[in-house]
Each structure stands twice: as structure tokens, then as C-alpha cells.
Amino acid sequence: MSGMFFGTNQIKKIFYGNTEIKKVYNGNVEVWSANKKMPVKGDIINFNALANGTNIRFRVLSISGNVAKLLEVSNKVGASAFNTTSKTAQFDNGNYYQDYTNSTLSIKLNNTYYNTLATNVKAAIIPTNRVQSCYTLSTTHSGSETFCLQVDDDSTQMNIYYTKVTQKTNGELNCFALDIDDIVSYFNNSYNISTTAIKKNMFDLPDDDANVYRFSSAAATNSTAAWMYCTGNSPGSYIDTYYDATYQYCYCVAAFNIDLSNIDFQIEG
């Protein structure tokens, strides 16, 4: 707790965690105001997110004012297929790819997971119009829609190129799986993105993590598959379509947009 006094009108600022409480003495009148310190992009925050009181850690993927896009980094939301039965839909380029709308994965996050959240957290979540991307592997740089994944978290060093082919709108969702576009956006649309940065600076995973995490992005070269993030020690972590959409043993990781002004969170670090 700290206090400061200025001029004829005494102003006292008291800090409780992330909240700055200002007490102004103006004659015989006391005026109180509170200003919650908001996190910045890249911060990890924690709060009691689940209805059972469980404290969960989140990475701040973006923030504008009080509204942040958060990614869970301490709570794997079970395993799920992308679609228990393969289901395709038409994308903006006219072709058909694996569909995230009402998919098994979307229902698990937007319905089942959402219903485990605390009442105040659900009330603060802002439904978000989500767009599903569709990517393909490229052999080299193929224009502005290509990024290079630099596999550098293992002794094997290599570059893998991914090009965005098309997209489709999924509609409004409360909770959702990350899209590859979210990865690119988090790293400021950089052409080069390292696997170490994704693993540590985004997902906050330990070095020895060896799991598979579902993305919402469809695969252009295989309409029965969707992209996933595979971690491990050899050949390092990478983004792949190793399993088809019906494979049930990939972890879900939840993301959502939320107004933090009424959430009692703590900023780590």
C-alpha cells in the first residue's frame, strides 16, 4: 500500500493488487475513484475462472481497453476429435474443407467448457464472430499469405512454410479453439515464427511437453483433416495434419474474449 499527497487538495493513491484507489480530499468532501491496472499483450494473468473456484492461468493474446482475448495455459480441456464424423463445408474459394461450425471441437469448447465457467466469467465473456482459415504446406515463400515456421526447439533445425488458401465465417462463439491466423496475429503478422516462441511465449508449455493440440484451421490438401500443434523433443514442435479430423486424442485449449473490468484477476511476473 502506498500514498501520495499533492498541493492544497490532498490526493491519496492506494494500490490493492491491480487496482489503484484514489482518495481526493476537497474541503470536507472525500471523493473515491478506482482504476484497475489492465494487462498488456503477452502477460499471463490468473483468476478463479471455473464455477468450482479453480484458479486458471491465461495468456493475453490481445487487449483493447478492458477487452482481452485470453488463451488458457494451465488447463487442458480434455481431448476431442475435430469432428467425430468428418463434416465439410464450402469455403470462400468454392471448395469444401473440414468445417468448424457446430463441429465436435466447437461444441466441446463453446458449450461443454463454457458451462463449467463461473457465473461472473460467463457474464463478462463477449461473443466473437470467428473466421476459420484454411492453410496448405508450401515448399517456399508463396506471397503475403505465407509464413515460415522455424523449428528451433530441438537439435533438428528446419523451416516449414504454410500458405493461407481461403477462409469461411463460423459465426459468433463464446469459447473457441485457436486458428492458425491467431498464431500469426499474436506474432504481429511476422513472416518468421519460431516453434520455441509458440511453445514458450504463447502456450507457456514446459520444454518436455509432448502432446497434440487442436486448431480450428482446415487443411487445403486433405478435406478429412484439420491442423494441429504437435509438441515434442524430436523433431521439435510443429504444425501438422498427422491425424485426421476424427482422431479423438488431441487436447483442446480454450480461448475467449472477455471484459476484464469486473474480473478479479492478478497479473503474474
**Which stretches are low in confidence, meaning pLDDT under 50 for 5 or more residues running?**
1-8
CA radius of gyration is 21 Å
Percent helix range: 10-25%
Largest sheet: 7 strands, mixed
Q: What is the 3D form?
A: globular
Kindly report the average pLDDT value. Answer: 86
Distance between the termini: 18 Å
The strands making up the biggest β-sheet line up spatially as 13-11-12-10-14-15-16
Instruction: Give the total of beta strands.
Output: 19
Classify the beta-strand content into a percent band: 35-45%
Number of domains: 2
The helix-strand sequence is EEEEEEEEEHHEEEHEHEEEEEE
Structural class: mainly beta
The helix tally amounts to 4
Q: What report would you give on this structure?
A:
This protein has helices at residues 104-113, 119-124, 180-186, 195-202; strands at 10-16, 19-26, 29-36, 44-48, 55-64, 67-72, 79-80, 88-90, 96-98, 128-138, 146-151, 158-173, 192-194, 212-219, 226-230, 238-240, 250-251, 255-259, 266-267. It is mainly β. Strand 4 (44-48) and strand 5 form a beta hairpin.
SSE map:
Layout: E1 10-16, E2 19-26, E3 29-36, E4 44-48, E5 55-64, E6 67-72, E7 79-80, E8 88-90, E9 96-98, H1 104-113, H2 119-124, E10 128-138, E11 146-151, E12 158-173, H3 180-186, E13 192-194, H4 195-202, E14 212-219, E15 226-230, E16 238-240, E17 250-251, E18 255-259, E19 266-267
Parallel strand pairs: 10-14, 11-13
Antiparallel strand pairs: 1-2, 2-3, 4-5, 4-19, 5-6, 6-18, 7-17, 8-9, 10-12, 11-12, 14-15, 15-16
